[in-house]
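Reply to dn_fold:

You asked what the input looked like. This is it:
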Amino acid sequence: MEYKKTKKRIFEIIQASTEHDLASKIFDVCLIVLILINVCLVIADTFNLPEKVKAISFHIEVVSVIIFTIEYFLRIWTADLLYPKGNWFVAKIKYIFSFLAIIDLLAILPFYLPFLITIDLRVLRMLRIIRLFRVFKINRYTNALSSIIKVFKNKQNELLSSIFVVLLLMVVASVLMYSVENKAQPEVFRNAFDALWWALATLTTVGYGDIYPITVLGKILSAIIALLGIGLVAVPTGIISAGFIENMEESKKCKTEEIKYCPYCGKEIK
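and this is what came back:
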């Protein structure tokens, strides 16, 4: 009985904090601070640091990995409470292959791999960059990132449709521009891929200026594509904005409904 109570309490603490659970809030804040420190350390590694600073950085890395490893295994241990349907083994497998669990594993794996297998130094440097995945762990401890993911999930069909149209226009524009400008600038518009880079810069209204048309027809086509880009590239932004507004209204509605009921007895407040 005590084992189950302990397991349940650990599960409550390591999940996203609730309004009245102080231990869970402290856990979330500590983990967020630790993740941000780790991100700063990854950036610091790109500088030529003194040996003393490198030693401190390594010790922080070791402590962080120990904490993240304990957290990872605690989440696997309590996975059957997260997925109560089915047996404990299925719940654990389901958790291990979930997106957030993979992020958790990637956050600690680069530290352990050199101890398990012989790795080339260049590969090791790349693995150390994977530590940046720790920043995605913040999603567990704050509702802000969860809201962003929720908006993208709710609007995924609209977003995919708009992105598909933009990509289609890019491909068409690149082929047309290659056909128009290849003879005039064979060294610039060598193939459709070079034209695709121009189409990307033009449609997104970035306009790097490293590649541009010089023929009259090419300039007219460029102007049309740029005007179309202003409208089409803004469509995904509008969809996401609408999603955030809907999400905020839904959250306000849920909070209003919660106030109508007593949090202790569940009776309606008149």
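The first helix runs from residue 2 to 14.
Hope that clears it up.
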